[in-house]
Specification:
Blueprint (H helix, E strand, L loop, with lengths): L11 H5 L7 E5 L3 H7 L5 E4 L3 H4 L11 H12 L6 E5 L9 H15 L3 E5 L5 H9 L4 E6 L5 H4 L10 H15 L3 E5 L3 H10 L4 E4 L7 E4 L1 H4 L17 H17 L20
Helix pairs in contact: 4-5, 5-6, 6-8, 8-9
Length: 277
Amino acid sequence: MSATARKSAPLPDDIRAMKGGTPIVSLTAYTTPMAQMMDAHCDFVLVGDSVGMVLHGLPSTLGVTMDMMVMHGKAVARGLTSAMMVIDMPFGSYEEGPEQAFRNAARLMAETAAGAVKLEGGVAMADTIAFLVARGIPVMAHIGLTPQSINTLGGYKVQGRGDAGATLMADAKAVAEAGAFAVVLEKVPENLANDITGTVDIPTIGIGASAGCDGQILVVDDMLGLFTAFKAKFVKRYAELGVDGEAAIAAYAEDVRARRFPGPEHVFGDAVPGAKT
């Protein structure tokens, strides 16, 4: 299945059916123009709570609110026709229990037209995932490094090394059995990611995991070089738009101060009777 050949967006079951086939392509998006650029190339687009750090300057994802996710979800939806949209459930919107999760997931889907929600957690979230799926809300799971849990994980560390690998495997099995249609594996050792991919019957989406996963996702501002505060090891920069953008702004500032901009071609003359303006 190719995103460039589709005439309509896939459904969660279509993504699930891509298990073991052509790798699934995904990126995050937070705005309409960015969504338009990736629409023809991605199988699904994630409105990630990474928006808090990337666009709002927050130190982590913990300060992201439901209202922020709704606003950015609506913006991304306007730019998509071929890719499915998945939206993150922000910190504090689902951990209290299945009923809270359902209310907030239903709001996100109703107000943004998302095809699915994503939430973080493995065994601990299995009951919530099952509750949502049973009520018509498709769920993408997220295990390994779960950014909303950095205070308990002790930072952005690799997860699942050594004996901890058994715990992550249990998490993967739990979310698959609960009905998640796919699972993101973040910052997980390569061999463990491959083992999980070969064990669960739903697609694994890697970010800092393994090329052997069923798909990959990156934060678009990372891979385009727009977010420059830091660069994770697992990020490949496909462009350096942040550097280019700053250079362009510097050139503009220099032109303005030297009165080179605006030039004659950028200004308007007096109106001429009968002439088109």
